[in-house]
Amino acid sequence: MKALIDWLIGWPERVAQQLGSLAPLFARIVAGWVFLWSGWGKLNNLPAMIENFASWHQVASLSIDCSTALCEREVRYNYCARLVALGSLGLGTQ
């Protein structure tokens, strides 16, 4: 009975420990493959992609502007937080 339990539970666990690093590798390969072929299709059909961007008008540029502003705000906030941290450690004054 112990051999059966080891075969049903222990063996798959030992195999999974050996193959644990393959799952992230496989996911990266699949994601890279998808991005490669979607980008290749857009690159080979560049006039249609330019037409698509032109037809989106202000809505796309407004969303890009808003996301850019939010990211810039976060960068400024993080920079200021680091300056405050340096000051509180006494590293910024000498």
Outline:
By secondary structure, the chain is mainly alpha-helical.
Question: Any overview of this molecule?
Answer:
The chain is mainly alpha-helical. It folds into two domains: 22-55; 57-94. It contains four helices and no strands. The chain is flat and about 70 Å long. The termini are far apart. The model has no long low-confidence stretch (mean pLDDT 76).
Write the layout of secondary structure elements.
Layout: H1 2-18, H2 22-44, H3 46-55, H4 57-89
Overall average pLDDT: 76
Indicate how many domains the architecture comprises. Answer: 2
Q: Which sheet architecture does the biggest sheet show?
A: none
The gross shape turns out to be flat
Number of helices, counting only DSSP H or I runs of 4 residues or more: 4
DSSP summary, beta strand count? 0
Low-confidence regions: none
Q: State the share of residues found in helices, binned by percent.
A: over 70%
Strand content: under 5%
How many angstroms does the end-to-end distance come to? 72 Å
By secondary-structure content and strand pairing, the structural class works out as mainly alpha
Instruction: Give the topology string: H per helix, E per strand.
Output: HHHH
Using only CA atoms, what is the Rg? Answer: 26 Å
